[in-house]
Amino acid sequence: MWAGLTCPNKKAKNLVQCGYMLRSIRIEIQAGFTGINDIKQHKVLEAKRVFRDNGTRTLAIYFDLCNWQVAFIKLNEIEDDDMNWITRTNLDDGLVWNIDQNFFFWNLTQSSLKFKQLKSIVF
Q: Where on the tree of life does the source sit, at the highest rank (predicted)?
């Protein structure tokens, strides 16, 4: 048994031999303190480049500390023409992806998410 996963093949030495597909994922952690929740364009472009070059996905975990909520965003899946791209004049590069309220799956005042819930968000 590995991390709660069982394998019918008793001779298996790892999860791959059991038929589990292992995936790499990059985690980007961000926090906001003002109630304005967005991700700078260069973070999304980097995530897309990494995915294109080696297939590694990037998950942003964004903590909105003003409202005690957490968003999970697959950065490499954000479309270039997504309607959430906006310009913020107070930033150097200006273009940011505004995090829609629908991406906030967890409130920090509640119990933590179960692994099954996270798995459905991430993969």
A: Bacteria
**Residue 96 burial by Cβ neighbours in a 10 Å radius (0-12, 13-18, 19+):** buried
| pLDDT per position as a tens digit, 76-102 | 999 999 999 999 877 666 899 999 998
Q: Which of 2, 74, 59, 60 is nearest to 31 (CA)?
A: 60
CB atoms within 10 A of CB 30: 17
Please report which confidence band the pLDDT of residue 11 belongs to, taking 50, 70 and 90 as the band edges: confident
pTM for the model stands at: 0.74
- The enclosing H or E element of 98 equals strand 95-98
Core vs surface per residue 49-75: b (16+ CB within 10 A) or e: ebbeeeeebbbbbbbbeeeebbbbbbb
The CA distance from 28 to 59, in Å, is 6
Q: Give the span between the Cα atoms of 70 and 8, in whole angstroms.
A: 37
